[in-house]
Amino acid sequence: MSPALFVAQRLTAFVLALAVTVHLATILYAVRGSLTAADILARTHGNIGFAVFYGVFVVAVAIHAPIGLRNVLREWTPWRGVTLDIALGLFSILVLALGFRAVFAVFSA
Amino acid sequence: MVGSALDVDIWRGTQAGRFQAFSIPRREHQTVLDVVTEIQRDHDPTLSYRFACRVGMCGSCAMVVNGRPRWTCRTRVNEVVRDGERLQLEPLRNFTVVKDLTVEMTQFFEKWQQAHGYFEPGSQPQEDFAIVPPSTSERQAADAGIECINCGVCYSACDVVAWDRDYLGPAALNRAWTLVNDVRDKGNTERIEAISHSDGCQACHTHMSCTQFCPKAIAPTYSIAGLKRVVLRRNLRIIR
Q1: Counting Cβ atoms within 10 Å, is residue B42 exposed (0-12), middle (13-18) or buried (19+)?
Q2: Which of A27, A102, B104, B221 has its CB surrounded by the most CB atoms within 10 Å?
Q3: Which residue of A has its CA nearest to B231?
Q4: What distance in Å separates the CA atoms of residue B60 and residue B53, rounded to the nearest whole number?
Q5: Residue ranges of B 207-236 with Cβ closer than 8 A to chain A
Q6: Sequence-distant (≥ 6) Cβ neighbours of residue A5 within 8 angstroms
Q7: What is the pTM assigned to this prediction?
Q8: In Å, how far is A12's CA from the nearest CA of chain B?
C-alpha cells in the first residue's frame, strides 16, 4: 500500500469511527419511540444536515472499503497491477453511486 | 525424569524431508541446543545445525521447537517437554532450508539493508561525541528495540512474511525504527521511503506473533506501529 493510500485509509477510518457511532446511536434513538419508516422519512426529508452527514459517510466508505479490499486481494490472490487498481476504482464508483442514490432517496422522499 | 530417555524427532532434509527419531538420556538443566549437539556428536555426525556462542548473544541457534520458534541455547528441555512427551525440532519457518536445521538467511539480512537498517552519519560527521540523554523519548524508543540479535525468530513467527515473501519483516522494521529514533542519524528521509510501501510497515497486521516469540522480549509490533505513525505524519505534512 502506497503512503497516499495508507494515509487515506487511516483518515477515512477516523471519519468512519465517528460516523458509524452517530449512525448507530441515531438508529437506537429513533426506534425507541416506535417510529415508523414513514415517520423517519418525514423527518429526513429536506434535512440538509442529514444529507451532508450521510454524504460524508458515503465518501469515506467509497475511499476506505476499496483500499481494504485491495489489501485483502493482494495478500490472498496473485492479482496485482493496473487491472487490480482499475477494478477497485470501479468498485469505489459503484459504492459512491449506490450510496448517493440512497442518500438522495431518503433526503428527497 | 533425570536418567530417563528423551525422545526427539528432528527434521532431516531440505524443504522436502522427514522427521528422524532419536533417543538420548534426559539430563538436568539440559538445553535444546545440548540435545542437538549430543545427537550430532554421539548418534549422527551428518546432522546439520548452527550455533556459536551458546549464551543467547549471537542469534544463530534458533529453531522451531515443538511448533514454536525459539532460541535453543536458552531454552531448557524442561520448559518445553513434560514427562512422556517428545521433543520435535524443525528449521525456522519462512526461510529456505539448506539442510536439516540450517536455513538460508541471506534474504533476511538483505531486507535489513533494504530497510536502511544501518547508521547514516551524513556527509559531515559530527566532530565531537553526541550527547543523547537517556531520558529523552527518542533514546527510550531506540533502547526498547536495540537488543535484537538477528536470530530470525520473529521472521519465522510472522504470518505476513508467510503470505508475502517480499515483506520486510519485523526484525528489519524494528531496526529501522531504532535508527529513526537515533538523533545522530541523517538518513531518515530515505529510510522512511524505504520502509513505506506495500511490503513495508503498512503491511503489518499487528498479529503480534513477533512480540510473542522474541527471545529478547523486544516488541517489534510497537516499533512497526511507530513507523506507521511516522509515515502518517510525514505524508500529512506533505499534504499540508
Answers
A1: exposed
A2: B221
A3: A3
A4: 8
A5: 228, 231-232, 234-236
A6: A67, A70
A7: 0.88
A8: 13
Rg of chain A taking only CA atoms, in angstroms: 17
Interface of B with A in 50-89 (CB under 8 A): none
Cell of B151: 536470530
Q: Which of chain B's residues have a Cβ under 8 Å away from the Cβ of A10?
A: 232
What is the layout of strands, in order, in the sheet containing B17-25? B17-25, B5-13, B87-90, B62-65, B68-71
Largest CA distance in chain B: 70
User: Which of A78 and B178 is assigned the larger pLDDT?
Assistant: B178
- Cβ pair B236:A4 closer than 8 A: no
List pLDDT tens digits, range B73-132: 999 999 999 888 999 999 999 999 999 999 999 999 999 999 999 999 999 878 888 899
ipTM: 0.74
Q: Chain centroid to CA B146: how far?
A: 13
Record the cell numbers describing residue B94, joined without a space: 519462512
Task: With beta carbons less than 8 A apart as the criterion, state whether B187 and B203 touch.
Answer: no
